Amino acid sequence: MTSTSRTPEGGRIDRATTVEFTFDGQTLTGHPGDTLASALLASGRHRVATSIKLGRPRGIAAAWAEDPGGLVQIEEPFPEPMLLATTVELHDGLAAHALPGQGRLADVPDSARYDAVHHHVDVLVVGAGPAGLAAALTAARAGARVALVDEQSEAGGSLLSGTDRLDGVPALQWVAAAVAELAGHPEVLHLQRTTAFGSYDDGFVLALERRTDHLGAAAPKHVSRQRVWRIRARSIVVATGAHERPVVFADNDRPGIMLAGAARTFLHRYGVLPGRQAVVFTTNDSAYDAALDLHRAGVRVQALVDARPEGSPRRREECEHAGIRVLSGAVVTGTQGVERVTHALVAPFADGEVGAGSAIACDLLLVSGGWNPAVHLFSQARGRLRYDEALGAFLPGEELDGLAVTGSAAGVFDLAGCLADGQRGAGAALGALAIPPAGEDRLPAAPEPVVPAAPLVLWRVPDTSGAEGSTSFVDLQRDATVADIARAVGAGLRSIEHVKRYTTIGTAHDQGKTSGVLTSGITAELLGIPVQDTGTTTFRPPYTPVAFAALAGRDRGRLFDPERVTALHEWHVAAGAVFEDVGQWKRPRYYPQPGEDMEAAVLRECAAARTGVGILDGSTLGKIDVQGPDAAVLLDLLYTNLMSSLKVGSVRYGVMCGVDGMVIDDGTVLRLAEDRFLVLTTTGGAAKILDWMEEWVQTEWPELRVHCTSVTEQWVTLPVVGPRSRDVVGAVFPQVDVSTEAFPFMTWRDTTLDGVPVRLARISFSGELAFEVYVNPWYAVAVWQRLLEAGRPYGITPYGTETMHVLRAEKGYPIIGQDTDGTVTPHDLGMAWAVSKKKPDFIGKRSFTRPANADPLRKQLVGLLPVDGQTVLPEGSQIVEFLPDGELPPPPVPMLGHVTSSYRSAALARPFALALVKGGRSRVGDTVHVPVDGTLVPVEVTGSVLVDPEGARRDG
Amino acid sequence: MQLIACPWCGPREEVEFSYGGQAHVPYPDDPGALSDEEWAHYVFFRANPKGRFAERWNHSAGCRRWFNAIRDTATYRFERVYRLDDPKPVIP
Q: From which residue to which does any coiled coil extend (chain A) (predicted)?
């Protein structure tokens, strides 16, 4: 299909190359340099979407990210919903659909790569229009480290959309020279297609660079598709320009109605005539440029409708000289047409009153209600805005440290002024940073600015259509109208934030770029208060939508969170282990043999540990090396029991509490020397307990001569567990006397294996005779294999965390954080024996004497045996009690506690559980009930130690 | 995301730090001598002012040292940081 609306020449497109794309299945063509919107307009297509609530046809209403109309669904090269046709760069093979309201998410994974880069600069300039380029040149010439980011495909900003001249030549020649000069500065980073979408504290700006989107299927796979730049700038120059503001009138949403400045962009940048017959409706001088430029390009401008009583005398003369009819003191009151505008209804307008009108035929209606400075980044950085009565716009209302707003973002709208303001902004930044300015910093000569006639601030044209504002659209994306604002105000809402949420204006894809200030103005009018008092809604990042994939960057899948594996991980994988996540650790849960499920594997592993010998990879246990003359003093303060009396060579179990007296961790402590301990923590508590120690040492007891260091990853820990463990350990370490007499329970011995230091400890987390083998991780596989080899005659069985849990639960050993929940004291766990009565103080001690601690109804750790001998109670199940008459109490049924651990026991040949139960120890022997799948299962309360309560097995 | 000036490392990203609550709440010399109410105040009660507040911070992903700071809880601005052994500044 040939382009029907392309100009014969001009624009920033590559006319020598043609690219094919499809829209709604129709094959169309365009050129490199086009956006999807410009290519659609060039092919005569104005309608691209259907509105979400009302189903009205919508078209392209602006030329860039402020467009509220032209939302499309992209199908190829990758499905993406709700992109703006105006910001999608055209490439070969692009396939898009008109969007019926909502988009459709991709149902295939995004295989593109996304990444992030941190960057630090002296001066960040946002926007490469006249002000931004001038600022970047000034900063670069002074030798500052500069970043210049701009969201368009090429630098130039507003200069790309006009016919301005600088130094007597087309302004884009100056732009090209400026870009070339910046490229010659080694400390300048210049990024196009990069949107600064959020400004945060202390000069932190996030920017999204679209690196390969414009290449389509030709994008190289090794280059990330989009990149988030995390820029920390000592100073920021915001030169983000301004958005043109529409005027609201009845049926102002039809395809073919667009902002006047957008028409100039389509004409000058893309060589597109957005219509054949135009009506221009304005409240200010800027739209006269659009009327004149379109006229010169061959568009019949039917009328320029200026709402100001006197219009603009100077510009009127220019228009009339060109043969354009100017109607001053007139407004557009409505439109006709369905798929595209066919008529503008024009009527005289004076003192807020609309007279009798007439229809003017047109296929393009351009609108300008003035300009809103793009103050988003300033406002996100908590800059206060002020309302400018003359401009009808919100401007930066204060100076911010380290952030200067320049050019039209600051309300400067002439070219010479923008250049000078950019230079000034950068100069101020350099001054604040004490960077001396360059000797030579010349600005190009711009034409002497002409003072425009004062604009009229007009938010909306009174609705004479009879629709009472219900077709006067404020937010096209939300189908929200003047009538909706009136309804909000009528409902008593006065805050602009409430009006926004009631009407949903500004909550769509465009975040109110064209509708926000209109809403403030119309709301103020309806309330009869100054616009300054209404203010704006809060500007929040992101300025334009950012894909979650880009924010996630490389932090996806396996890279989302570190995986920690032990030195034996490959062995476990080869042995067919099923893994579970314990914090960031991958731990073997069980090792199924062919045909085994978890239950069968765990019963087999448990039986091996209780009757023969098992072996566990316990390397994830937290290990902290505590050294210094006051190491024992520190441990006495942190543990509930006495550690200073521990002999070198011995091991003691201990409990730590918070100041509130609740258990936070437990584990064993090895005294390595008078001034050195190895503290073992739970796997999950390793980092927390090291932090806890550091906090007390640094903040409360800095006089203690003690240092704490994590050695979790410096030692693997291999418990060899079961009645035959002595045979195995004795065989591998023949120089160690492993008899009970020579190597008693809760002691440790150092030895060597082929010259490699090894530490052995008689510690048991199962109640069985057990030896823990500690060795440097480099030798873990060799030592593990020697233990397996030596254990082969006894059927040594590797076991995982599930078996470890069953074995410890059978002995009533709690897991802190599973059997406890931050409301449990050592006494509640039946560990009063681990609480020192001798020590004058330790963390938590004072809390134990609170009256609540003596409450006999505190929840206590007990064992539960389901009476049927069959049911495995789900962990977390509630526990209830029948009344003496055998009935449940009336609802709400009082809860006695809950099941904290529950397993099937090989040793008991039945399921069992641990539970926290109110007054639990006084209930031993009672029968209580646990609801399971709608049935009340009777369970017997027992002591918490169900296997070997006498402790007869620990020495084999 | 603001920069926090660690007294040992200089200005670093906020995510490197963790918060430690109100500063200058020392562990009592003799907890056993306190009433339950006095002990409860030490364990549970902390000020929560709007405005300047003396707080504990830890450079947990950096040097792992604790320090104190005066921060405005309304603006989040750190007005000064100081070492644990420095006296509590007068908060205007």
A: none
